[in-house]
Design brief:
The protein is an alpha+beta fold. The strands form two sheets. Strands 1, 4, 5, 7 and 8 form a five-stranded mixed β-sheet that branches. Strands 2-3-6 form a three-stranded antiparallel β-sheet. Strand 4 and strand 5 form a beta hairpin.
Length: about 200
Protein backbone atom coordinates (compact mmCIF):
# COMPACT_ATOMS: atom_id res chain seq x y z
CA UNK A 1 0.00 0.00 0.00
CA UNK A 2 2.86 2.36 0.83
CA UNK A 3 4.40 1.73 -2.58
CA UNK A 4 1.14 2.68 -4.36
CA UNK A 5 0.80 5.87 -2.32
CA UNK A 6 4.40 6.79 -3.08
CA UNK A 7 3.88 6.29 -6.81
CA UNK A 8 0.73 8.41 -6.81
CA UNK A 9 2.55 11.15 -4.95
CA UNK A 10 5.33 11.26 -7.52
CA UNK A 11 2.85 11.18 -10.43
CA UNK A 12 1.09 14.21 -8.98
CA UNK A 13 4.44 15.96 -8.52
CA UNK A 14 5.23 15.48 -12.23
CA UNK A 15 2.58 18.07 -13.06
CA UNK A 16 4.62 20.86 -11.51
CA UNK A 17 8.08 22.24 -12.21
CA UNK A 18 11.15 20.42 -10.89
CA UNK A 19 9.16 17.21 -10.45
CA UNK A 20 10.30 13.63 -9.99
CA UNK A 21 8.42 10.58 -11.21
CA UNK A 22 8.95 6.86 -10.73
CA UNK A 23 8.82 4.87 -13.95
CA UNK A 24 6.48 1.88 -14.28
CA UNK A 25 9.53 -0.09 -15.41
CA UNK A 26 10.64 -0.34 -11.78
CA UNK A 27 7.44 -2.14 -10.80
CA UNK A 28 7.74 -4.52 -13.76
CA UNK A 29 11.33 -5.30 -12.82
CA UNK A 30 10.32 -5.97 -9.20
CA UNK A 31 12.61 -3.15 -8.11
CA UNK A 32 11.32 -0.42 -5.82
CA UNK A 33 12.81 3.02 -6.38
CA UNK A 34 13.12 4.30 -2.85
CA UNK A 35 14.54 7.69 -3.81
CA UNK A 36 16.67 9.37 -6.45
CA UNK A 37 18.34 12.73 -6.92
CA UNK A 38 21.12 14.62 -8.61
CA UNK A 39 23.36 17.34 -7.26
CA UNK A 40 25.77 19.89 -8.65
CA UNK A 41 29.09 20.29 -6.87
CA UNK A 42 31.60 23.09 -7.33
CA UNK A 43 35.06 22.03 -8.36
CA UNK A 44 38.21 23.93 -9.28
CA UNK A 45 40.15 22.62 -12.27
CA UNK A 46 43.17 21.59 -10.18
CA UNK A 47 40.91 19.37 -8.08
CA UNK A 48 39.13 17.81 -11.04
CA UNK A 49 38.64 14.07 -10.28
CA UNK A 50 38.31 13.38 -14.01
CA UNK A 51 41.91 14.46 -14.56
CA UNK A 52 45.09 13.44 -12.73
CA UNK A 53 44.93 12.88 -8.97
CA UNK A 54 47.31 15.70 -8.05
CA UNK A 55 47.86 17.96 -11.05
CA UNK A 56 46.06 19.03 -14.17
CA UNK A 57 47.26 18.48 -17.73
CA UNK A 58 49.09 21.82 -18.01
CA UNK A 59 50.96 21.32 -14.75
CA UNK A 60 52.01 17.84 -15.80
CA UNK A 61 53.15 19.16 -19.19
CA UNK A 62 55.26 21.93 -17.66
CA UNK A 63 56.75 19.64 -15.03
CA UNK A 64 57.65 16.90 -17.51
CA UNK A 65 59.26 19.42 -19.85
CA UNK A 66 61.36 20.97 -17.08
CA UNK A 67 62.46 17.63 -15.69
CA UNK A 68 63.58 16.38 -19.10
CA UNK A 69 65.56 19.52 -19.87
CA UNK A 70 67.28 19.54 -16.47
CA UNK A 71 68.12 15.86 -16.83
CA UNK A 72 69.64 16.42 -20.28
CA UNK A 73 71.67 19.39 -19.00
CA UNK A 74 73.04 17.40 -16.05
CA UNK A 75 74.11 14.57 -18.31
CA UNK A 76 75.95 17.10 -20.46
CA UNK A 77 77.53 18.78 -17.40
CA UNK A 78 76.36 22.23 -18.51
CA UNK A 79 75.96 24.31 -15.33
CA UNK A 80 74.98 27.45 -17.25
CA UNK A 81 72.16 25.57 -18.97
CA UNK A 82 70.98 24.18 -15.63
CA UNK A 83 70.71 27.69 -14.21
CA UNK A 84 68.72 28.83 -17.23
CA UNK A 85 66.39 25.85 -16.95
CA UNK A 86 65.72 26.56 -13.29
CA UNK A 87 64.69 30.09 -14.26
CA UNK A 88 62.42 28.66 -16.97
CA UNK A 89 60.85 26.33 -14.39
CA UNK A 90 60.03 29.30 -12.16
CA UNK A 91 58.44 31.03 -15.15
CA UNK A 92 56.37 27.95 -15.93
CA UNK A 93 55.21 27.78 -12.32
CA UNK A 94 54.12 31.42 -12.48
CA UNK A 95 52.14 30.72 -15.67
CA UNK A 96 50.36 27.80 -14.02
CA UNK A 97 49.52 29.88 -10.97
CA UNK A 98 48.15 32.72 -13.13
CA UNK A 99 46.04 30.24 -15.07
CA UNK A 100 44.68 28.79 -11.83
CA UNK A 101 43.68 32.22 -10.59
CA UNK A 102 41.85 33.21 -13.77
CA UNK A 103 40.18 29.91 -14.72
CA UNK A 104 36.42 29.86 -14.05
CA UNK A 105 35.12 27.40 -11.47
CA UNK A 106 33.74 24.19 -12.86
CA UNK A 107 31.06 21.83 -11.60
CA UNK A 108 30.58 18.10 -11.62
CA UNK A 109 27.33 16.20 -11.17
CA UNK A 110 26.39 13.33 -8.89
CA UNK A 111 23.46 11.09 -9.86
CA UNK A 112 22.00 8.82 -7.18
CA UNK A 113 19.27 6.21 -6.98
CA UNK A 114 18.32 3.96 -4.05
CA UNK A 115 16.65 0.71 -5.11
CA UNK A 116 15.09 -2.16 -3.19
CA UNK A 117 15.07 -5.68 -4.61
CA UNK A 118 11.44 -6.87 -4.42
CA UNK A 119 12.14 -10.21 -6.13
CA UNK A 120 13.13 -13.51 -4.55
CA UNK A 121 16.43 -13.65 -6.47
CA UNK A 122 19.71 -11.84 -5.83
CA UNK A 123 20.46 -9.04 -8.29
CA UNK A 124 23.91 -8.85 -9.93
CA UNK A 125 23.51 -5.82 -12.23
CA UNK A 126 21.00 -3.05 -12.92
CA UNK A 127 20.90 -0.83 -16.00
CA UNK A 128 19.04 2.38 -15.22
CA UNK A 129 18.50 5.72 -16.92
CA UNK A 130 18.11 9.08 -15.23
CA UNK A 131 15.71 10.88 -17.60
CA UNK A 132 15.04 14.62 -17.75
CA UNK A 133 11.81 15.86 -19.29
CA UNK A 134 10.36 19.27 -20.03
CA UNK A 135 7.63 19.61 -17.40
CA UNK A 136 5.52 21.76 -19.71
CA UNK A 137 5.64 19.82 -22.99
CA UNK A 138 6.57 16.34 -21.80
CA UNK A 139 9.44 16.21 -24.32
CA UNK A 140 12.56 14.37 -23.25
CA UNK A 141 15.45 16.77 -22.79
CA UNK A 142 18.22 14.29 -22.07
CA UNK A 143 19.10 11.13 -20.16
CA UNK A 144 22.08 9.68 -18.37
CA UNK A 145 22.57 5.93 -18.70
CA UNK A 146 24.17 3.88 -15.93
CA UNK A 147 25.04 0.27 -15.18
CA UNK A 148 25.38 -0.59 -11.50
CA UNK A 149 27.34 -3.80 -11.03
CA UNK A 150 26.54 -4.51 -7.40
CA UNK A 151 24.77 -7.41 -5.73
CA UNK A 152 21.45 -6.70 -4.05
CA UNK A 153 19.89 -9.52 -2.07
CA UNK A 154 16.13 -10.19 -1.90
CA UNK A 155 14.45 -7.52 0.21
CA UNK A 156 17.64 -5.49 0.43
CA UNK A 157 18.14 -1.82 -0.52
CA UNK A 158 21.24 -0.29 -2.05
CA UNK A 159 22.16 3.21 -3.18
CA UNK A 160 23.92 3.60 -6.51
CA UNK A 161 25.79 6.77 -7.39
CA UNK A 162 27.81 8.07 -10.32
CA UNK A 163 29.90 11.21 -10.67
CA UNK A 164 30.08 12.76 -14.15
CA UNK A 165 31.30 16.01 -15.71
CA UNK A 166 28.12 16.01 -17.81
CA UNK A 167 25.11 18.09 -16.66
CA UNK A 168 21.56 16.67 -16.74
CA UNK A 169 20.56 18.88 -19.68
CA UNK A 170 21.99 21.68 -21.78
CA UNK A 171 19.94 24.10 -19.72
CA UNK A 172 22.28 23.51 -16.80
CA UNK A 173 25.71 25.16 -16.96
CA UNK A 174 28.97 23.51 -15.98
CA UNK A 175 30.48 26.94 -15.32
CA UNK A 176 27.89 28.76 -13.22
CA UNK A 177 25.36 28.07 -10.50
CA UNK A 178 21.77 29.11 -11.15
CA UNK A 179 19.23 28.48 -8.42
CA UNK A 180 16.42 28.44 -11.02
CA UNK A 181 18.01 25.98 -13.44
CA UNK A 182 15.90 23.07 -12.13
CA UNK A 183 12.67 24.97 -12.84
CA UNK A 184 10.52 23.37 -15.54
CA UNK A 185 12.46 20.10 -15.57
CA UNK A 186 10.80 16.84 -14.54
CA UNK A 187 12.97 13.91 -13.46
CA UNK A 188 12.39 10.20 -13.85
CA UNK A 189 14.42 7.04 -13.28
CA UNK A 190 13.80 4.16 -15.69
CA UNK A 191 14.97 0.64 -14.90
CA UNK A 192 16.10 -0.80 -18.24
CA UNK A 193 17.59 -4.18 -17.36
CA UNK A 194 18.05 -6.38 -14.30
CA UNK A 195 20.50 -9.27 -14.33
CA UNK A 196 20.31 -11.81 -11.54
CA UNK A 197 23.09 -13.86 -9.98
CA UNK A 198 21.56 -17.06 -11.39
CA UNK A 199 22.11 -15.73 -14.95
CA UNK A 200 18.49 -14.82 -15.74
CA UNK A 201 17.56 -11.33 -16.87
CA UNK A 202 14.63 -8.94 -17.03
CA UNK A 203 14.72 -6.53 -19.99
CA UNK A 204 12.53 -3.48 -20.61
CA UNK A 205 10.63 -3.97 -23.86
Amino acid sequence: MKVVVLMLTFLFASLVANAQTISDSATLAQVELVKFSWSKERLNWEQNPFGGPNENFHQMQFRARSEKRVSDAKRAGNSAEISKLEKDARTDAAIVEASRQTSPPRYYFIYKASMKNRSTKEIAEIDWDYVFVDAGTGDELDRRQFTSVQKVGPGKTKEFSFMLPTPPTRRISVYALDKKERFGVSEQVVVVRVKYVDGTEWQLQ
